[in-house]
Amino acid sequence: MQTIRRTLAHGTLVGLGALNLAQADEAHQYRVSIDEAMQRMVVEARFGSSVDTVTARSRDAGEFLADVRDCDDASPIRLRNQRMMLPAGGIRCMNYTVDLAGAARSGAHNRSLAAENIVVSPALWLWRPALEGHTEIHVHFDVPADLQVSVPWRRVERAPNSYRLGRSPESSDAPAVFGKFDYSEIEVPGATLRVSVLRTGNEAGHAMDLASIKAWLQSTATGVSLAYGRFPNPSPQIVVIPADDKRQSTGAVPFGRVVRDGGEAIELFVNRDQPMQAFLGDWTATHEFSHLMLPYVTPAHRWVSEGFAQYYQNVLLARSGTYEPVDAWQKLYEGLERGRQSRPELSPNDATARGMRNGRMKIYWSGAAIALMADVTLRERSGGTMTLDDVMGRLQDCCLPSERTWTGPELFETLDMLAGTPVFMPLYKRYADTAGFPDTRPLFDRLGLVVSGNGLKVRRGGELQHIRTAITKADGAVGDRRERLARRGQVSRNAAGSAGS
Ligand SMILES: [Zn+2]
Q1: Ligand 1 center–CA 91 separation, angstroms
Q2: pLDDT digits (tens, 9 = 90+) for 95-139
Q3: 340 C-alpha vs ligand 1 centroid, how far in Å?
């Protein structure tokens, strides 16, 4: 396991850093102090220019707020409807106190955690002005030496506990973690994962010790880099949270999600009593990591982001050797069939507008059908020299991580431009507002896959079988490492079992 601390920023960050330095005078400077017992947070916000509105993202933030003042004359600032009533003419500096312990108690994440580490979203404590242009917020945390901080924002190099957040989609409440927990930086192709494994107070005796958790994350993120040679975000925040009892029922990683707010965070709820094999076979982390290959797509077109993640999760788990190729195709086939049966009277856009409750499978799989169709079309048209992976790689180069929310058509138009041939937008026009489901069955036939009973069989002579083989071709080195990891988990589990008996 490599946990090398990087001193040089990734290439794209260097570029962005240079750009932002030019506007550094505009930055808002926040100093956030936290006491040893993590009871109170004191924030001083010194604005780059006069500000007349500050808000917190959560409706509940006001509950935990106290003693808000103008720094210059110490006059109090009142709160109304989640807005601070700033004096006419604006304000240059303010300070306030947050009941951090109270905010922590209100958060569902903390139920399964030991008191020494807490998750309190910036939505509850970061009162901020809207960011215009290139203006950034620089946040420096003043914490006792034995406490750590984890946030999704970009680190300021060589300035511990200092971060910059610029404009970004705000998809949900991002995690900010404070206290004593295991923090490490894990190198994978093209990225340094900033991984925090949170503590329950019951650290010993899990099938997955810390080293195993990190080995699993490194292997899974490396598997995701098989799309185009590098992990899609150069420095994501990854928070590993013990699953609570309610979520513990199923699998190694019962729940995961991507959150965007000033940066990209992935939360993974894990059941550390499951063995390494269960972790390696679980698709949740691969699915969430795959989401980072696209920008944040508006909830109205959520079927696009979910679908691409579903497609890639299966393709990438085949490439990393986790699934046999035919099993990956079987999973894609079954998923697409579930999507086809889900709300056939609705289009993908309509199903998404009506919400997850009834059309979940349609929302998760219509985009996967389109990703598959686009991938095959690109490969067929170019004789194999242009693939969906290539287009995703170009999208990362030009546009990720993105500071804004994209619509489905904007994304598809950009993908067409990057592909140099219209593939995506024609699919969008044909299917996004059309009831039913993209018909992928003739495509499976051309790929050399036939339905046989409940399963799929490979048949000889499929016209596009070379494309099928290329899409799910395993990477030998990654596969070998994963297999060794699985065996190591098996051995240590057996050893632990015999020692206990
Ligand atoms: Zn998803």
Answers
A1: 41
A2: 999 999 999 999 888 988 999 999 999 999 999 999 988 899 999
A3: 18
**CA 313–ligand 1 middle distance (angstroms):** 10
Q: How far is the CA of 309 from the centre of ligand 1 (A)?
A: 6
C-alpha 258 – ligand 1 centre gap (Å): 8
Give the separation between CA 349 and CA 427, rounded to whole angstroms.
Answer: 13
Entry pTM: 0.92
Inter-residue contact 150 to 122 (CB < 8 Å): no
pLDDT over 70 (residue 5): no
The three state secondary structure string of 246-268 is CCCCCCCCCEEEEEEECCEEEEE
Query: Ligand 1 centre from 287 Cα, in Å?
Result: 6
What is the distance in A from the centroid of ligand 1 to the CA of 289?
A: 9
Ligand 1 mean position, distance from CA 325 (Å) = 22
**Strand pairing class (91-99; 65-70):** antiparallel
Total Cβ atoms within 10 A of residue 277: 16
Whole-number average pLDDT of the chain: 91
Residues with Cβ within 8 Å of residue 427, at least 6 apart in sequence: 370, 373, 374, 412, 438
Contact partners, residue 54, CB within 8 Å, separation at least 6: 45, 83, 84, 86, 94, 127, 128, 129
pLDDT of 455 > 90? The answer is no
Q: What is the pLDDT of residues 274-315, one digit of tens each?
A: 999 999 999 999 999 999 999 999 999 999 999 999 999 999
257 Cα–ligand 1 center, Å: 7
Spatial distance between the Cα atoms of 233 and 258, rounded to a whole number of angstroms: 12
288 C-alpha to ligand 1 centroid (Å): 6
Could you tell me the distance, in angstroms and rounded to a whole number, from the CA of residue 216 to the centre of ligand 1? Answer: 20
Mean pLDDT confidence for 134-162: 95
Vertex 336: Cα angle to 334 and 337 (nearest 5) = 65
- For residue 494, is pLDDT > 70? no
